[in-house]
Amino acid sequence: MEVASLYRRVLPSPPAVEFASAEGKRLFAEAMQGGTMEGFFNLISYFQTQSEPAFCGLASLSVVLNALAIDPGRTWKGPWRWFDESMLDCCEPLNKVKADGITFGKVACLAHCAGARVQSFRADQTTIHDFRAHLRRCASSQDCHLISSYHRRPFQQTGTGHFSPIGGYHAGQDMALILDVARFKYPPHWVPLPLLWEAMNTTDEATGLLRGFMLVSRHTSSPSLLYTVSCGDESWKSMAKYCVEDVPNLLKDESLNDVATLLSHLVESLPANAGDLIKWVIEVRRKEEGESSLSKEEKERLALKEKVLQQVRDTKLFNVVHELQYPKGPCSSCSSSSDEDSLSQIAANVCCQGAAFLSGNLVSRYGFCCRETCIKCVEANGDGLKTVISGTVVSDGSEQGVDLLLPTSPSKTSLCNSNLRNKVVKYPSGADVLTVLLLVLHPNTWFGIKDEGVKAEFQNLVSTDNLPDLLKREIMHLRRQIHYLTGCKGEEACQMPMPPSP
């Protein structure tokens, strides 16, 4: 049945005061004088309207992440790295958010996954006085922004649960400025802070938990460069269970009398979709948007990814994992690859994902197919050749050419054929991802190993203490992602702090 169309809603006033009204302008000017609008200008510079009716949480977070100038480390469209709702799928598949919306804990989880520092508070975990103090502090700074999760009913507005950033605070009249991301419905507006607190102190029917607010700021270190945690579909839950429940139980086996046996035991018990949890971030560009050579910026980002990849492969853990997965054959100085890790497989999978992403398809990569893919070398701005997967993607009768810039680690001299098509290219493989997963799991995970000698040897292998700084930052960021993602597997443990390393 066709639904009647709507053009905006009339903002109920009171209790709200429209931002663009004479009263709203007066409140703004006075708050400016009071120094509690410092965060407003960065937020308004990157303010956006939610692109789907249920994307208020994703839109609010996109605004805040861009306002904090957090680099996502991957492209949005063309050459541009930028946070968009379509990139916020770490903790909940986009098609589920589109259908059902998103909960408070999952938004906090997404903020962590995106590389932000997050402090989240439900209404029963704090007081209105603490909320006021947090808002005043954030509104007086450009380094912190507050996202509110509230119900619209106390403001006499239509609708139910909603997310929006808070753009400022008027101390004299105790009012907060809501930058409503549903701009098609209501404009930005001032509301009494006690009423906003009442709107947050409501129960989300999806979880049975109270709503609240979160403070989002920058970490001192950058988010990941090469790897990210992903839950593009529901299959990630089996890996979350594996990390949290299965591994500790597997370690109770008293027959694990050496590291090789222990690792074999862990690998054999991996879920079939193990590779879907930690994925590597690849550069994607439309062919018409890039010349045959790489730009200086592309080359620099690719070099950082390659440095991380090489640092993974320089660990003792990688050597053990690689030898376990790929026993040495006649060409012992080369890395061998399984069919699963072949470049043709990567070309088909990543090419289609990249094309779906560039097309603006927020929900699914399915329906895209690669008509052809090839591997080629391009000049990296005078710094030698780099590996590129080039493909033509077909969808709904239209074609899109894409290039994917592939991070590789330097190959050692080998007896293998040096021809590009036959040469083994050291791109991120299953052994890399398994190594990273083992490094990322919290050190407490390995306390259950029965044999003290094996435990000491294995803990030494997975220790991050002596990792290079670049790789250590990568691992710690992924560890935070894993912690908050696995915390969300049941429901709202998402905002619990990560336990300290021993």
From TrEMBL:
- Cross-referenced Gene3D superfamilies, in alphabetical order? Phytochelatin synthase, N-terminal domain
Q: Which domain of life is it from?
A: Eukaryota
Family matches, as SUPFAM superfamilies: Cysteine proteinases
**Alphabetical keyword list:** Acyltransferase, Cadmium, Metal-binding, Transferase
EC number assigned by the record: 2.3.2.15
Tell me which residues make up the Peptidase C83 domain: 1-221
Q: Give yes or no: UniProt keyword Transcription.
A: no
Q: Does the keyword Transferase apply?
A: yes
- GO terms of biological process kind: cellular detoxification of cadmium ion; detoxification of copper ion; phytochelatin biosynthetic process
What InterPro entries is this protein classified in? Papain-like_cys_pep_sf, PCS-like, PCS_N, PCS_N_sf, Phytochelatin_synthase_C
What PANTHER family would the database entry show? Answer: GLUTATHIONE GAMMA-GLUTAMYLCYSTEINYLTRANSFERASE
State the name under which the record lists this protein.
glutathione gamma-glutamylcysteinyltransferase
